[in-house]
Amino acid sequence: MEVKRIMCCCGSGLGSSMLVRMNVEKTLKNLGYTGIDVTHSSVSDATENAADLFVVGKDLEQFVSSLPRVIILDNIMDMTELETKLDAEMKK
Amino acid sequence: MKNMLQRENVQIVESVKDWIDAIHVGVQPLIDGGYVEARYIDAIIENTEKFGPYYVLCKDLALLHASSEQGVLKKQLAITILRQPVRFKPDGFDVRLLVTLAASDSESHMQAMQAVSNIFTDEKRIEQLATAKTADDAYTQFIAAANE
């Protein structure tokens, strides 16, 4: 399914999730994907209908285990890891 | 950006006892300046116990924060440089930089997070900030990163 909405999540939905959101936006641009809505929020807002794809750090993996499409980042600040995983997911 | 980080909220500290002490030390300047209530400390500790230290984003960086409703009065950042690193979990990263975020809403600290992103995606800049000789120097580095 085509990804139109990406939600980046952290515990409070303010700090780390905003960083991930900025990194996702930058990466999408580099990869040439346009027209995708990227938001950031807390994991408690991450429900199946909230987005097509969710991005979270490894520490929060257990809180998003019920969601169908999730990217788990081992290192939140590693742009290479994000680019690889995001590109793979966008091509599915 | 200068409104988001006041010079007096940048500090260099020799060491902390453990991760709980790190949270106390890292948040204290924001309590002293009237940016957060004392309960903000408890909120970060509680969130850590619930979710784990997810705010340790990479080696050397803990982006300490709780949500806006957990005691934030005015948006602001504090930066604490630890000469001796601390760990937030036994197998976690060594952390020398505590960036404490008090966010008043979910969007308005975007420029501050841009500065964090500019520094912490670059190992050389992390090292430069962690080994800053004075708080003035660290402050200048951070403001410069925000204005890129």
Characterize the structure shown.
The complex is a heterodimer of chains A (92) and B (148). Chain A has 2 helices and 4 strands; from the N terminus they run βαβββα. With 92 residues, chain A is an alpha/beta fold. Chain A has a single domain (5-91), classed as Rossmann fold, CATH 3.40.50. Chain A has a 4-stranded parallel β-sheet with strand order 2-1-3-4, covered by helices on one side. The longest helix of chain A has 16 residues, at 16-31. A 5-stranded mixed β-sheet of chain B has the order 1-4-5-3-2, with helices on both faces. The termini of chain B are close together.
Report strand order across the widest sheet of chain A: 2-1-3-4
What is CATH's topology name of chain B? Mannitol-specific EII, Chain A
- Structural class of chain B, by secondary structure, is alpha/beta
CATH class category name of chain A: Alpha Beta
Assembly annotation: heterodimer
CATH C-level category of chain B: Alpha Beta
Sheet/helix structural class of chain A? alpha/beta
The H/E string of chain A reads EHEEEH
Distance between the termini of chain A: 7 Å
Sheet with most strands of chain B: 5 strands, mixed
- Which CATH-level-2 architecture of chain B? 3-Layer(aba) Sandwich
Shape of chain B: globular
Please tag this protein with its features.
heterodimer, A: 92 residues, alpha/beta, Rossmann fold, 4-stranded parallel beta sheet, 2 helices, B: 148 residues, Mannitol-specific EII, Chain A, 5-stranded mixed beta sheet, 39% helix, 20% strand, globular, PTS_EIIB-like_sf (chain A), PTS system ascorbate-specific IIB component (chain A)
Topology (elements, then pairings):
The complex is a heterodimer of chains A (about 90) and B (about 150).
Chain A: E1 5-10, H1 16-31, E2 37-42, E3 53-57, E4 70-73, H2 79-91
Helix pairs in contact in A: 1-2
Chain B: E1 10-13, H1 19-32, H2 39-51, E2 56-58, E3 61-64, E4 76-86, E5 95-102, H3 110-120, H4 123-130, H5 135-146
Parallel strand pairs in B: 1-4, 3-5
Antiparallel strand pairs in B: 2-3, 4-5
